[in-house]
Amino acid sequence: MEFKRKFYKQHILSSTNDRPKEVLSFQFDRTHPNSLRKSSYKERALIADFLEVPVPEDPAKQSHPLSMKQVVEKAWANWGIDQEKSPEQVLSENWQKIVGRKFAGKCAPERLTENTGTLFIKTASGPIKQELGFEKKQIIERIQTLEGCSFVKELKIS
Length: 158
Hints:
Radius of gyration: 32 Å
Mean pLDDT: 78
Oligomer: single chain
Distance between the termini: 77 Å
Largest sheet: 3 strands, mixed
Shape: elongated
């Protein structure tokens, strides 16, 4: 085995014109998309051991850190900040204003169907359901004043 390794190493070193220099030095061209392939430490160690050269550093550690502006922009994009809010988000954010403090903790919007304009509300008990039924018109009016919720025409309370 030792003879094969030395023979292969000598063959590579003698034919450096035929082979790219990246094989010997483990250097990656960061501008080429195929060279950005991640290699594990075991893979680099195996090749280095076979070629009897030192184990190269991880190419991912050589990347430059992101600026604070780039980090914030990436976080905003991932979290959906500064994007248009859906009607469901608007309803859940303003729920206490819509139904009042008294009922906000005892009921919640369950689902919203935009094609029929129906908001389904789930209540904690029968008396809460009955109380919300009495205030149905006022609740619909409050919902329709919210941005993006003017299509809501009906409440289904359960």
